[in-house]
Amino acid sequence: MGRSTSHTGFLQRASLQVASLGNNIAIQIAAGSSLKAVYKHYHEDGALTLQHFIIFFGAFELFLSQLPDIHSLRWVNGLCTLSTIGFAGTTIGVTIYNGKKIDRESVSYSLQGSSSAKRFAAFNTLGAIAFSFGDAMLPEIQNTVREPSVKNMYKGVSAAYSVIVLTYWQLAFSGYWAFGSEVQPYIVASLTVPKWTIVMANIFAVIQISGCYQIYCRPTYAYFEERMLTNRTSGSTLRNPLVRLIFTSIYIVLIPLVAAAMPFFVDFVSICGAIGFTPLDFVFPALAFLKAGKMPKNRKLRFSMLLLNIAIAAWFSVVAVLGCVGAIRFVVEDVKAYKFFHDM
C-alpha cells in the first residue's frame, strides 16, 4: 500500500513538473510572438527577431520570480484576469470580423495530407485538447489548502472551467469557423484586420500569460525549496535572496533557451497536454477516487462507479500515449524543416 502510494505520488509530481515546464516553454513562444507582432506593426522593417522578444519576456519573468511567493503576485493576477477577458473578447470579435471578410467558399474544414499525416495530426490534437483543461488544475490543487477543502476545490474547479468554456473554447470555435483547417495554432497570427485591434489583442495576451508563467513556475520553485529544506540548512532555501536569484536565473535561462531554439508553439502545447495535464486532470483523479475507497453502498452502483473510473483512467492513459506520439512526430518534422533558432 505504502509503496503504491509512493509511486503514485512520484508520478503525480513528475507530471506536474512536466506540465509546468512545457506550459512555460509554450508561454515563452506565445509571448515572444505577440511582442514581435506589436513591434512589427510599428517597425515593419525592424531587425529584431522572435528570439529577442523571448529573451525580453524571460527577463521580465526573472524580475517577477524574485517575489517570495504567489501571494506577492496579487496585483499581477488581477491584471491577468482582466487581460484574459480583454484578450478573449477582443480576439473573438476580431476573428468573427475577419471570418466575415473572407470568401466563405474558399474556407476548407478538411484535413490536408496523407492518411498517416491525418492520424498523427489527430493524435497531436488530443494533447492540445487536454492542454485546454490544464488551467483548472492548479486552482483545484490550491483550493484544497483551505478548509473545507472539498467545497473550496469544487468552487475553484467550477470557476476555472466556466472561464475556460466561455473564453478559450469560444475562441477555438470561432477561429475554426473563420479560417477552417488553415487556422494558425496561435490564433492571433491568423488575424489580418483591423490592425489596431490585433495590436491590442497581442498586448492583452502578453499581460495575461505573464501571470500564467508565474503560476506554473512556482511548483518547480516550491519543489526545489522543499528539497533544500530537507537536505540543507534553512539558510540555503529559496527564501535567501541570493539563492533565489541564482536558481531562478538558471530556470529562466533554460526555459527561454529551449523556446528560442525550437519555437514550435503547438508542439509544446501538445506534449505538455499529453504528458502533463492528461494524467493530472483525468488519470490520477480517477485512481485517487478508487484509492480512497469511498464507494456507494449499493452493490450495482458501486460496481458501476468502479468500472467508470477504471475506464476513465485506462482511456486517458491511451490518450496521453497517442498525444505524446503525435506531438513528438511533429517536433521531429519541424526540427527537420527549420533550423534551430529559426525566426518564425
Cα distance spanning the termini: 50 Å
Low-confidence stretches: none
Total beta-strand segments? 0
Secondary-structure class: mainly alpha
Question: Given the C-alpha coordinates, what overall shape results?
Answer: globular
Give me the number of helical elements. 10
How much of the sequence lies in strands comes to under 5%
Taking the sheet with the most strands, its summary is: none
> What share of residues is helical?
over 70%
- The residue-averaged pLDDT reads 82
Q: What is the alpha-carbon Rg in Å?
A: 21 Å
Order of helices and strands: HHHHHHHHHH
Question: Topology of this protein?
Answer:
Blueprint: H1 2-42, H2 50-64, H3 74-101, H4 115-132, H5 137-142, H6 149-179, H7 195-231, H8 241-261, H9 265-292, H10 299-337
Helix pairs in contact: 1-2, 1-7, 1-8, 1-9, 2-8, 3-6, 3-7, 4-9, 4-10, 9-10
If you had to describe this structure to a student in words, what would you say it looks like?
With 344 residues, the protein is mostly helical. Helix content is 77%, strand content 0%. The protein contains 10 helices and no strands. It is globular. The model has no long low-confidence stretch (mean pLDDT 82).
